[in-house]
Amino acid sequence: MKNKIFSYLLLGLFLSFFMRAMISCDDDGIVRRITPELTIQDEISVGPMAERLVINLKSSYPWFAETEADWINIRRVRGHALKPDSIILEIAENTEMANRTGYIEIRLMDQLSKRIPVTQLSRGSLITLPKKVIYFNRQGGDEIVDIITEQDWQFETISGEGFSISKSENGKMVIHAEMNTTGNTRQQSIRLFDENRTVENQLTIIQSTRDELVAWALLPEEKDCIVQRAGESHEFLVTLNREAETRSSANWIKVSAIPATNSTEKTDVKVTVSIDENLDYDERYGYILVGEKGNIDNSCDTIYIAQRAANEIVYVRADAPAGGDGSSWERAFNTISAGMTAADYAKLKELWVAKGDYQITTTLNWKEVNVFGGFEGNEVKRKDRDFSQKSRIIGGPFQTMNAWNNENGIRVFIDGFIFEGANSQSDYMGPLEIYKGRGLRNCIIRNNTYGKNSGGYYDNCELINCLFYGNSSLGSTGAVVHVANGTKLYNVTIVNNQGGGGAGGGIRMDKGTEAYNTILWGNKDTRPKGGYHQLYSDSNVKLYNCAIQTGDAIYQEPTKSNVISLSSDNDASDGPQFTNINSGTEDFSLRSSSSCIDKGLSSAIETLNIFYDITGNHRIAGSSVDIGAYEYPQ
Fold first, then answer.
1. SS3 for 10?
2. Which of 39, 53, 89, 189 is most exposed, with the fewest beta carbons within 10 Å of its own?
3. Which pLDDT score, from 0 to 100, does residue 555 have?
């Protein structure tokens, strides 16, 4: 009973506080209720295509938004009072030939309600084509194209030649292609538009040099597509004049059989492609071939598939204006701290960060999400970013980033970053402290000064295609890079670091850690008596196809397989032969004569689907993978 009375008292205090917040006092001491006000546009009009809208508003009370239209999805349904705010709407495509109307309703608690009509134009307001590309074989021929529109359309040729185009009396387009005797593929683009040129579309005509014709009826850019994590199913047209077959590169891409056809005339058939759900936490890639039956490899056309590992992407761009919500490149956050906070734990999100400098003022808490850097700031596919670009996180007199135990066991990466500028006397675990199931990939850790482990501490992690250089550890214990509890290194380069701790100037490896295709060179133990310059390890450590500078003591001899000894002279025939080791202009890519080329263990990276090096060069350019973060492009 006492608990209930106490609960009622708390509820009464809360209601009293809330009502006081909703009133104001003038100079005469008269208590007045805040006038309910809502500032927002009176109506919304959109085109027939799917669209994402941000509607700005300001209200005097907390607000709530709702709709009964199934084609309107309100992504942000509630907000605060007395400050600028916004509603995020996602409008589905209108595939009908008639306009449709709906509404969103904004409620200010029980004080005010405003209904805002939403009008979406019909498909008939556009000029829609059944397909965007028409294929002909060398022989040519005729094709009649239905134009789906309520507009009085016209056309003009943009580029190319070899085809005649006309408009029939019943409003269809007629295309005629003569025989192609040029020996080269012919192509022409046609622009279709309404009388006022307010609506446009474009058709591409392609004529090959072969009589055999089997091709996906898609534009080149449409053959490089992205699908969602949950999986999708699509119908694609195949243009052909003979029996054809398909083949996919992976069992998660399922393609229906091409219907049999006895006709030698050009025709279009439908093929269903189903993509399974991506149960991993990394983007995956595949492709679909279509070609002449029994001769698919010599006559194929290809669709490339990239499937996302996240349901939602949070965007960060250093030059973005303030006030973004991270929902797109245009509305990106402008600090990486805001992006990290918005990417919640295990919510199947990814953080995409554009190139640029990000000076942080407090420690970043890396959650259970993939974080990718180096974007230009306009990409829609992760694989379109330039690997040679990195987003730069600049630390200060504090720990740069930590990531505690991964409770859900999700394998996630930070990929495409430079970490530099940490400057602390702390004898804690290092500027980067990473645990369990996480990894660094395609990252550079440089020019950090820290009391202990200036290159970071990595426990049960993966380091892939990473470069550590110019870091200084000041403490009496630890190393520059410390890896423990089963951490694995793949194609890592650790060079020109220095440490004054008992574990040396390079790397400390203990408790079952393994290194593959890794370079340790030029690191120094700065203690007066010297010590473990390159490697401090125990007998549980395993090294496979690594390259290590000679002449340095190791605490306990690790298990070694195909380990190369490197001269301390970079330019010697048995030296690493980095492109440039001079401070300030460092370039730790390999020269063509480096002894590290083709000496790595290829099977180690093939099982992890590591296709590129730290700058985006293809891995295994020669007979085997190179040692270190850089692959020499042969």
1. helix
2. 39
3. 66
Q: Which residues 6+ apart lie within 8 Å of 468 measured at CB?
A: 444, 445, 446, 455, 480, 481, 492, 493, 494, 495, 497
Q: Which of 543, 568, 567, 569 is nearest to 554 (CA)?
A: 543
Task: Place 17 in a pLDDT band, splitting at 50, 70 and 90.
Answer: very low
Q: How confident is the model at residue 5 (pLDDT cuts 50, 70, 90)?
A: very low
Q: Which residue has the tokens 């694609």?
A: 236
Q: Please list, in sequence order, all residues whose beta carbon lies within 8 angstroms of the beta carbon of residue 197, skipping any fewer than 6 positions away.
A: none
Using DSSP's 3-state secondary structure scheme, residue 6 falls into helix
3-state secondary structure of 223: helix
Tell me the one-letter amino acid at 523: N
- Residues of the domain holding 221: 214-307
Q: Report yes or no on 551 lying in a domain.
A: yes
Burial of 167 (0-12, 13-18, 19+ CB in 10 A): middle
As a residue count, the chain comes to: 634
Q: Using an 8 Å Cβ cutoff, are 497 and 468 in contact?
A: yes
CA dihedral 179, 180, 186, 188 (to 10 degrees): -20
8 Å CB contact between 568 and 549: yes
Q: Residue 413 has which token pair?
A: 């990466």
Q: What pLDDT was estimated at residue 607?
A: 82
In a domain, 363, yes or no: yes
Helix (H) or strand (E) holding 78: strand 78-79
Q: What amino acid occupies position 419?
A: F
CA 492 to chain centre: 22
Task: Give the CA distances from residue 583 to residues 538, 580, 619, in Å, rounded to whole numbers and listed in that order.
Answer: 32, 9, 27
Q: What is the pTM of this model?
A: 0.72
Tell me, yes or no, whether 431 and 572 share the same domain: yes
How do beta strands 481-484 and 456-459 pair? parallel
What CATH number is associated with residue 51?
A: 2.60.40.10
* Distance of alpha carbon 63 from alpha carbon 74, whole angstroms: 13
If one counts the domains in the chain, the total is 4
State the burial class of residue 131 (Cβ atoms within 10 Å of its Cβ: 0-12, 13-18, 19+). Answer: middle
Yes or no: say if 371 and 350 are a contact pair by the CB < 8 Å rule: yes
Same domain, 303 and 381: no
